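Hey L., structure's done. Input below.
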Amino acid sequence: MRCIIARFPFDLMKSEVEQSMKGVKPEPVVGASVIIGRRTFPIMQVGQVITGQDRRDFTAGEVMRALSRLGFTCRPASELAPPHSV
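Output:
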């Protein structure tokens, strides 16, 4: 599937993303996340690995859209936030 991340076109396949993330230790999730295999990765970590770009060059939304279109389960940062007490 062709997608644009940080103004650059990428041809991504689900199997290639899974292969790229094999052997990569997930960082602690503090924002948006994606489930790849049985592990949960921060969206920005996955974006950096699959694009080879610096995390400052793209947004979590760009990577989340691309991974969602490939069939991965993505969770926005708001789902991870603890409920506010009143």
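The first helix runs from residue 14 to 21. The CA atoms of residues 33 and 58 lie 15 Å apart.

-- N.
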